[in-house]
Amino acid sequence: MASTQNRSSFETAKNDDEYNPFERRQIRKANSSIGTLIHMVKGSLGTGILAMPFAFKTGGLVFGILGTVLVALIYTHCVHLLVGTSQKACRRSRIPVLGFAETAENVFANGPHGIRKFAGFAKAYIDYMLLVISYFSVCVYLVFISTTLRDVINYELKIDWSVRIYILLTTCVVAFITQVRELKYLVPFSLLANSSIIVVFIITLYYIFKEPLALSNRKLWPELSNLPSFFGTAVYAIEGIGIVLPVENKMKQPQHFLQTFGVVNFAICFITIMYNIVGFFGYATYGEITKGSVTLNLPNEELLAKSTQILAAVAILLTLGLYYYVPMEILWKKISHRIPERRHNLAQIGIRLGIVVAMMGLALTVPQLEPFIGFVGSIGSATLALLTPIVLDTVYRWPAGYGCMKWRLLKNIVLGTFGLFILAVGTYFSLMDIVAIYE
To answer: How much is the CA Rg of the chain, to the nearest whole Å?
Structure first.
């Protein structure tokens, strides 16, 4: 019996090795390794980098560098786990490509008998978590845009409008942008937004390095209560797990993705260096007055600074259509069959508008940027970027694929504990920060 089982496992492994999913992918316009690297950098090196000085404010200068490197290493490893598990699942099931949710479904469906019934739940869980993160991110961006407009316009016009007024005004514009349904119509918005972010980044660095550094009165290490906020912000800023498999699935040479000097390692190494530079010098420059986005610290009285702040807000506003596209595609696939086809257009308009109004309501309730960033980072990013790849790798390897003395299982338990720490403690302290706003 045992020999039959061993022979069956050997033959399965042999068949897995013989099937090469990379050769069977039919991609009309495949991306080069350089193009994929650019997408990976773009997926993480966005507006999150503007939040890194705030992360260093909570973590301190020394721990900020060490903590950012630690988060980057763990995130890189989790990307390797996710993509590696997806590629192995493709070989085992003889499928050319699997998306994020489809990988989770496949792994659970072929896992231990006791958990196979949860395959549908695993797929739905990934989809709905992507929805939650995307919509909460829209809320974060809505608060950022409104806060920026308040600081600049109130200063220029000598008025004292609340940020909630600007949230209402910004929502009117967002409601129109998020009605765009075709990806090709969003391309010009994305190009303009990316160009704007680059300009904002360069000018922000100019202001950061323009001021004299004051390291003597800056924190070097965090208070224990600030650790969850630091890790939540850092994970939120660095991770871009939602784009990893879609980008890898479109590669001309996907074998380059996980190599030692491949796309993932090079991209995240570059991102980590940039994040540490902005985080360290941003906090060193502005100290305890560092805000949730460093652009909010730029001097309102200078035209260049005001222009940069407005440009950052406009860039994010233009990107909201793209951020909205992915979750709406997921949601629409799940509910469109329940709606008569003749009412699809009206339903799309109503759903898109309804979600924007709901996000506006949440932003009006908590119109501050810092607690939102920590909250989204703790719940969404920790769950999808850290915990999910670890769980999928553990389930796929069950029961005998953990190596000598089951070191891979022990490693996954340690990383999973870290992910649960970010999820539980980070969410708790973020909620406490939100509650403190009203006390």
So the answer is: 23
Cis? peptide before 389, omega within 30° of 0? no
Give Cα separations from 15 to 10, 95, 102 (angstroms): 9, 13, 21
pLDDT tens digit sequence for 154-191: 988 889 899 999 999 999 999 988 888 776 677 677 77
At residue 110, what is the residue type? Answer: N
Residue 51 neighbours by CB under 8 Å, 6+ apart? 233, 236, 237, 292, 293, 294, 373
Q: With contact defined as beta carbons under 8 Å apart, do 294 and 67 qualify? A: no
Of the chain, the end-to-end C-alpha distance in Å amounts to: 67
DSSP 307: H
CA distances from 396 to 91, 264, 278, 338, 405 (A): 12, 22, 38, 34, 18
Using CB atoms within 10 Å of the CB of residue 69, give its burial: 0 to 12 exposed, 13 to 18 middle, 19+ buried. Answer: middle
Report CA dihedral (185, 186, 189, 191) to the nearest 10 degrees: -100
Neighbour tally for 413: CB within 10 Å: 12
Over residues 255-304, the pLDDT tens digits come to: 888 888 889 999 899 889 989 998 999 999 998 888 878 888 888 788 89
Distance CA 31, CA 139 (A): 32
Cα gap 174→318, rounded to integer Å: 9
DSSP state of 378: I
Name the residue among 174, 162, 134 with its Cα closest to residue 360: 174
* Cα 27 to Cα 32, 101, 177, 246, distances in angstroms: 12, 20, 30, 12
Residue 251 has phi, psi (to 5 degrees) of -80, 145
Place of tokens 């792994």: 107
Overall average pLDDT of the 47-52 stretch = 80
Q: Let me know how long the chain is.
A: 439
Q: Give me 290's structure tokens.
A: 């560092």
How far apart CA 131 and CA 326 sit, in angstroms, is 8
